[in-house]
Amino acid sequence: MNEELLAYYQKETEEEKELAKNPDRLFSFFDVLKPEEGDDRLVLASRQPVQVYRHPRFVAFPDHAHTFLEVVYMYSGSSVHVISRSDRLTLQTGDLLFLRPGVSHATAPASREDIAVHIQFLPDYLSYPLEMLRDDTYIRQFLWNCMAGTDAGPEYLHFHLKDIPEALNLLENILLIARGESSSRPVLIQATLGVLLLELITRTYLVTQGAPSSYEQKIVLGALSYIDRNFATASLEKYARSVNQPSYFVSRLMKRYSPYSFTTYVQRRRLLQARRLLVSTALPVEEIISRVGYENSSYFHKIFRAHYGMTPRQYRLRHTRPARPLPGPSRPDKS
Predict the structure, then answer these.
(1) 63, 131, 154, 212: which one has the fewest Cβ atoms less than 10 Å from its Cβ?
(2) pLDDT tens digit string along 73-96?
(3) What percentage of the chain's residues is helix, strand, coil (to nearest 5)?
């Protein structure tokens, strides 16, 4: 953690001092909309493509919605969020919360040590980062829905990144770029966001949806981590025995809180590894099929084609670039 950046965020701002004296000034943050049914709503709007700011501490933020995608990064400490007036979520240091536009949430007062940094994007800002994501992953689908303005899929994604230094370094880079004076800040943040998303899509086991209890979360995250480490041999029955729970209980928790069911995640993890081996090695396709855990070659070809729209060999040809020959020694000009 960058100590200078942490000290910068821990300083009490004039805005926070003013809010402590007069909490009613909090409502100046919001645009108040009055729907036809007569109920007032608090809405945070934005006219900038990207904004990065530290969430004001010491006061509770009432239930409100956004016209943009909001990412909350818990840089230090913890914070409590209530999403859609039902899911109570506690973010710990290193957690990352993606909130879909239009989803309401409220936050509890934070202490001086609780540093939550909000990164807000207008939907169109996601177009370039999405171009960097080739695989049709759960994260890509979520972001595409945000950009398209649909209500499909989950309202939020909750990542647990405290033990992933690569992702934390990228997030800290975004905070450092935001503090700078360069006119290229929006573009630099956009590019860094794309790299961060590439890092996150390889770690689907770090994300939960909904608000599981600590025990349920332990089982779900444990299952996703188990699959990621043992995808070639993973089975629901083996994992359920390892946590002393019946298979149906683990399956139910996975369906409720995980991006995928247990079986679907095993399949997608195997396909992702097969794709990597096709592009980065010269291994025969049949050996790759065996390495990722499939005995039935025909079945593997069927699901690979359904997922990627082509056969494994076609995928290899399309995505493998021929190596450039090394330059040879220069020859004297005989003319």
Answers:
(1) 131
(2) 999 999 999 888 888 888 999 999
(3) 45, 20, 35
